[in-house]
Amino acid sequence: EMFILSGQGKVSNLTSGSFKCDIYAGGSVVKELVWNANTDDWEEKQIRFKFDTVPNKVYARVHGSGTPNAGALFNFEDIIVERVSDYENGQKGLEIVTNGKSQSTPDVTIRGVSVSDSSASTSRKISDVTGPEEVFESTSNSYGYPVWTVILPTEENSAYKIDELSFYIKSSSSLAYSDAKITIQAASLYNGTETSIMRWTTNQTTSYKHCVYNVWYTLQSIVNEPVILRYYLRSTKESYAVYAYKLAYKCTEVIDVDTVSASDVYIYNTADSRRILHLCNSLPHGYMARIRGDYTGSYRYIEHFKDGAYASNAYSMSGSIARNENNNSLTMASGSSIVWPFSTLYPVTGIPFVKMYVYSGIPQISIAEDDNGVPGTFYTVDSNTSASLNGAEIQRELDSIDNLRLKGKTTYYMKIEPYTGKSCEFSQMLEYASLDTMDAMRFFIYPTGLANTLSVIVSGTGKCSAIISLSYRDTEILS
Questions:
Q1: Which of 64, 178, 215, 323 is the most exposed place for a label (fewest CB within 10 A)?
Q2: Cα 421–chain centre separation
Q3: What is the pLDDT of residue 120?
Q4: For residues 425 and 326, is the Cβ–Cβ distance under 8 A?
Q5: What are the angstrom distances between the C-alpha of 194 and each of 115, 185, 190, 229, 453?
Q6: Residues 236, 237, 239, 242: what is their CA dihedral angle, to the nearest 10 degrees?
């Protein structure tokens, strides 16, 4: 069978050597992906291969090769090693066709995705648009009217981030330069004034020069406003013709984290619309719910403090609380507090826990159950301590032996505050709970030989910045 190796990489400050991700099996490298030059942004590479004999175990290795220079940095994620057929189903949303002997119940995982552009793993809508196929021509030595105007319309609960701009341009004579520029206009940018953000020139005549500008800074509108891109072309010498075509742009629709938080999410197989799986009541950034086929599940919240989503996710905040951009951490002054809600939808089994990295101080953690949509009495969890920490990871069970056990609860709250009279700073927070998902209405992947097509229902505006993934076994292969 044909397999695929895929990954996303980003390289900076590389002057020697290279970085590789390879498949290693039986003491040798089967196939490898190579990054040997700096990249402007995340760059996907993939390669297809066949095993002569499929091994029982393979390793994916990420390493330097040829001695990369000191200071070179390689970011790598989204590694995929799987059968090509499975990869195409998973990546392109193709219909699932199985000829198994009985229906399969898939494991379903859903997670809220950050609006941050620091990761390649996002489900935000990427617009990659190329303008009209016609060739634009100008002999004027002034820009005059734009040759192409793009209006990104108002989007409810969304903002636009411009990622890339490009042109193909050339001149009729080496004596004149083709001069092209792009401007942007939005109420929140540059005081609402039309402003040039990129310009290219060339006197190349034999072929078009492809001019690409990756916007290295954050060029983003605010929610609910239109954005206008205008493309201009002129000749540096009047009467000489210059040309442009394939005018293009890439932008990201950034989903408002508040919209994500307010969205109910369901999923079902269109072959049987009666079995609708309710995944979660809300899906804030950093939260993930998993519903397995064996009636178990989990709910977690990971917060890296890389952006301001923590504030939108919080139920309440008081006192002086700020994000430290250098450490990607949260600093809390004496007397402050922050409360996070957890709406797990399905009852908690066992004891949930929280862990975090503490830079200084000692965060005090307490829990409360839901009381008609608001937190009840907060109780300090076991293992709380008043001893100051410095650069240490802590883990606390979210359990108050005498007052509150979260087992069986579907909604609860966790409060963090500094020790009395002191401040604290922490990062890398993980909250995790195992769930009993027996009541979840699971759907089937049917072994009919016909297409199984899955649909997702999102309430409210219908926008949900999320990744939903399935894993299942074809019962004809694995009976």
A1: 64
A2: 38
A3: 46
A4: no
A5: 26, 5, 8, 9, 45
A6: -30
Q: Are 242 and 144 in contact (CB under 8 A)?
A: no
As a whole number of angstroms, the longest Cα–Cα distance in the chain is: 88
How far is the C-alpha of 96 from the C-alpha of 451, rounded, in Å?
6
pLDDT band at 92 (very low <50, low <70, confident <90, very high): low
Instruction: Give the three-state DSSP class for 257.
Output: helix
Instruction: Name, in order, each residue with C-beta under 8 angstroms of 478's C-beta and a sequence gap of 6 or more.
Output: none
Residue 319 in this model has a pLDDT that exceeds 90 = yes
Write down the residue that tokens 């979660």 correspond to: 280
- Counting other chains too, the contacts that 140-143 makes at CB distance below 8 Å and 24 or more residues apart are 140/234, 140/235, 140/238, 141/234, 141/235, 141/236, 141/237, 141/238, 142/234, 143/181, 143/232, 143/233, 143/234
Tokens of 477: 């292969």
- β-pair partners for 203: none
Angle at 380 between CA 379 and CA 384, to 5 degrees: 175
Q: Tell the burial category of 79 from Cβ atoms under 10 Å away from its Cβ (0-12, 13-18, 19+).
A: middle
Token pair 């190329």 is at which residue? 130
CA–CA separation, 199 vs 201, rounded Å? Answer: 7
Inter-residue contact 308 to 281 (CB < 8 Å): no
What is the rounded CA–CA span in Å between residue 45 and residue 400? 49
Predicted structure pTM score: 0.65
Residue ranges of the alpha helices (H) in 206-363?
257-261, 309-313
- The model's confidence at residue 127, banded by pLDDT at 50, 70 and 90, is low
User: What is the tens place of the pLDDT at every residue in 139-161?
Assistant: 999 999 999 999 988 877 778 88
Helix, strand, coil fractions of the chain, as percent rounded to 5: 5, 50, 45
Q: Report d(CA 30, CA 34) in Å as an integer.
A: 13
